[in-house]
Amino acid sequence: MPSITLRTRVSRGGEYDTGIIVSGKNGYYFHANDDQVARGRRLSEIDDDNRTFTCLITKELMEQFFWGEDPLGQNMFINGMPFTVVGIISDEGSTSVADMLGGTPDILIPYTTAMKLNSASEVTSCTVYLTDGVTNDEAKTALENTLDAMFSFEDDVYTITDMSAIEDVMNDMLGMVSTLLAGIASIALIVGGIGIMNMMLTTVTERTTEIGLKKAIGAMPWHIQTQFLVESVLLSVIGGILGVIFGLMLSLILCNAIGAEFVVNYGAIALGVGFSAAVGIIFGWAPARKASRLNPIDALRSV
After folding, report:
1. Rounded CA gap, 186 and 144, in Å?
2. CA-CA distance, 155 to 148, in Å (whole number)?
3. pLDDT for residue 174 is more than 70
4. What string of DSSP letters covers 252-303?
5. Greater pLDDT, 297 or 103
6. Is 71 within 8 Å of 85 (Cβ atoms)?
7. Residues 229, 285 contacting (CB under 8 angstroms)
8. Residue 23 has pLDDT above 60, yes or no
9. Which end of the chain has fewer CB atoms at under 10 Å, N or C?
């Protein structure tokens, strides 16, 4: 399946938009992606051969340029040329490798017409569909043998990209982003933990008399230590819960802004609150230990 992708201006009446992604396809594309058309007809081999000025548009463009009208059979201008809308692209349609690399198309037209709009005489990108039982490696080897012979075994004249390669690149990018976010989160936790520890050390110093009185009336060291550990954990957990609430609100606003689905990951929330509690325990241990080891006589001298 040859593929031509270009960004151009689309207009109808007084409405226009620039940077619209137009993709040229052939008839076989719709045979391989039978869920691509929500309404209307597909592009066919006849459209390819005759370079017809026909197109399929997304529902977003339909709402933008044909609000309250049926777009089928009506004209719109693509790069100044009149095109007849013959179909609506389905939201659930498949996406080819070429589309993933060039961006999801807003308009589909015959590839021969796209070449004419782009003043191109050659097809520079093709998508290959595999029959059942053929692996990516087998198809890649066959393509390399054919293309090597076609280009007289010259180097760096073509590139073959498969879905597994794209998946590997995406996984590498996600891994890098996850590592970066984990590093930033670790620094934030350490800084927050140091702040909690300093606050608790100040609290121990200010409450020396209270600690001495409790020990004088029979409080054991582990009672004092538990009290200050609980205070430290509560302080960090409350901060973690406030952070979760703020993060959910920000995520909801961003999802609404970009039109993405808002999904709550309860496991991530539990992990975040758990880490907050762990920070409270780790950085609250030293102040709590210091409080539990105070001498009652020394503590009561300030009374």
Report:
1. 46
2. 9
3. yes
4. HHHHHHHTPPP---HHHHHHHHHHHHHHHHHHHHHHHHHHHT--HHHHHTT-
5. 297
6. yes
7. yes
8. yes
9. C
Which residues, in sequence order, are bridge partners of residue 40?
87
Using DSSP's 3-state secondary structure scheme, residue 32 falls into: helix
- Rounded to whole angstroms, what are the CA distances from 256 to 249, 262, 263? 11, 8, 12
Instruction: Kindly report the average pLDDT of the chain as a whole number.
Output: 85
Q: Helix, strand, or coil here: 191? A: helix
Q: State the Cα–Cα distance between residues 66 and 107, nearest whole angstrom.
A: 14
**Token couple for 198:** 């300093």
Residue in the structure block whose two tokens are 């080897």: 141
> E strands within the chain?
4-12, 15-25, 37-40, 54-57, 75-78, 81-89, 107-110
pLDDT at 72: 93
pLDDT tens sequence across 92-144 = 655 555 555 555 788 999 999 998 888 877 777 888 888 888 888 888 888 88
For the whole model, what pTM was predicted? 0.56
Helix (H) or strand (E) holding 246: helix 221-258
Note whether 74 and 104 are within 8 A (CB).
no
Taking CA atoms, 240 is separated from 36, 227, 262, 271, 287, in Å, by: 45, 20, 21, 10, 20
Name the token pair of 187.
Answer: 């620094």
Which two tokens mark 286? 């030293």
Tokens of residue 251, six digits: 């995520």
